[in-house]
Amino acid sequence: MNKTIKTVLLIVGVILLAYGVYVMVVPETQVSIGDLDLIEAQDNTNAYITIGLGIAAIALSLIKGKS
Q1: The pairing of beta strand 36-39 with beta strand 30-33
Q2: d(CA 21, CA 47)
């Protein structure tokens, strides 16, 4: 692969990995109206997919091409 493509894949992979971890760590949504508390359970499916894509992009950028 071209060096430019590898660099772009590495940068995109790091960004996707960081975003996926951020989405997973963000606390659950909570709304309080008087005595009523509404708490929405957090679904981390999208975070797992984003982290997986980030790891795949980083792995592809680190693969050594033909010598």
Answers
A1: antiparallel
A2: 7
How far is it, in rounded angstroms, from Cα 67 to Cα 17?
29
**Higher pLDDT among residues 40 and 12, named by residue:** 12
39 vs 44: CA distance, rounded Å: 15
Residues 19 and 7: their CA atoms lie apart, in Å, by: 18
Q: What rounded mean pLDDT belongs to the chain? A: 84
Q: Decide if 47 contacts 17 (C-beta within 8 A).
A: no
* Better pLDDT: 16 or 37: 16
Query: Model pTM?
Result: 0.75
Helix (H) or strand (E) holding 29: none
